[in-house]
Amino acid sequence: MVSSNAKIVVLISGNGSNLQALIDDIVEQKIAAEIVAVVSNKANVFGLERAAQANIPHQVVNHKDFTTREEYDAQLHSVIAGFSPDLVVLAGFMRILTPWFVEQFTGKMLNIHPSLLPKYKGLDTHQRAIDAKDEEHGASVHFVTPELDGGPVVLQSKVPVFADETALQLASRVQEQERQMYPLVVRWFCQKRLLMLNNKAYLDGNEMPNTGYAAD
Fold first, then answer.
1. Which of 50, 51, 44, 38 is nearest to 12 (CA)?
2. What is residue 215's predicted lDDT score, i.e. its pLDDT?
């Protein structure tokens, strides 16, 4: 019998907490999908151990083995394409991808970013939110487009920024939200409720606002 489950490739660079959240929801049959591969750009990260414990094929494509970003992305694409995924999930994958690579997976690649986009694209988002004296911070799940952290937002989750808390403390609370929201968006995609069309996100046929679904 041929499985109707969506095939997912997850890209990681570190601990893999969002990978684990996806694994758990798939095991609990909350997501009709199979993670067919986990690929890391770094060796010896705990996310690879999580994959091993779940009996998921995993490998390292180390960016340090390549002279240019283009050469790396070509090899990474070759590896991913070998699994014929329906969806590519960036789960803490700390690489800026070339426009060519992104275009190979248009509408089939999701990322989670630790800020309320369009605020604070790039790195050090938690400290930047604290330095700006923001009252709230959070995370955004979005489709990946060639613009860094610029693809259409699907879902955002907010947390208050408390006085005198550190970036590490704020990051921890944001990550708790990430582990809940990312599997939800992946589930929508696997149910074919979510898609990207003309650089806009649609859920159940309805165009989503710039801040995504249920931003509050």
1. 38
2. 44
Q: Give CA–CA dist 45/50, Å, rounded.
A: 9
- Count the Cβ atoms, other than its own, within 10 Å of residue 120: 21
Q: Where are the domains of the chain?
A: 6-118+140-158+174-207
Q: Is 21 in contact with 184 (CB distance < 8 Å)?
A: no
* 3-state SS class at 103: helix
- pLDDT at residue 4, rounded to an integer: 74
Catalytic residue ranges: 113
Residues (pLDDT < 70) of the chain are 1-3, 214-216
Per the document, the length of the chain is 216
pLDDT for res 179: 96
CA distance 143 to 196: 7
Give domain 6-118+140-158+174-207's CATH number out of 3.40.640.10, 3.40.50.720, 3.65.10.10, 3.40.50.170: 3.40.50.170
Count of CB atoms within 10 A of residue 172's CB?
13
135 contact partners, CB below 8 Å, separation of at least 6: 160, 161
Taking the C-alpha atoms of residue 45 and residue 75, their distance in angstroms, rounded to an integer, is 20
- HSE-CB at 107 with a 13 A cutoff on CA atoms is 12
